[in-house]
Amino acid sequence: MWYTIKLVFRIEIAGKRSAQFDEQVRLVEAANETEAFEKAQAIGHKQQVSFTGSNNLLRKWIFIGTAAIVPLKELASGTQCFSLTTEVDEPETYTNFVKERSKQFEQKLSLTTLV
């Protein structure tokens, strides 16, 4: 059976006080939810890294944990594997942002297919 898993990492950058977090939604194939969790944890721990960025600041990706495990009913084109509900104070700003991102993808793909 296939599962979507959500892994959460804290990104620490030397000298930076604000916190960054990275949420990754991935697919894993497992016999059951327990195995899916074990695979998620293994992936998360394997992805922990420390490196020096282009600005010579030490960056650390620290695995926090598995935030979600969702079984997929089927693995087929169009199957929903992730959903996020967002509440905003300025709906027009958010709507415009999404439309602009969509337009950027459309333009990028149009250019790619013409080449």
Q: Mean pLDDT, nearest integer?
A: 87
Number of domains: 2
Percent helix: 25-40%
Give the number of helices: 2
**How many beta-strand elements?**
4
Compute the separation of the termini in Å.
39 Å
Describe the oligomeric state of these chains in a short phrase: single chain
Q: What order do the helices and strands follow? A: EEHEEH
Would you identify the regions where 5 or more consecutive residues have pLDDT less than 50? none
Net shape: globular
Beta content comes to 25-35%
Annotation keywords:
115 residues, alpha+beta, 2 domains, 4 strands
Would you mind describing this structure in some detail?
The chain is of the alpha+beta class and 115 residues long. The chain has two domains: 73 residues, no CATH class; 32 residues. It has two helices and four strands. The N and C termini lie far apart (39 Å).
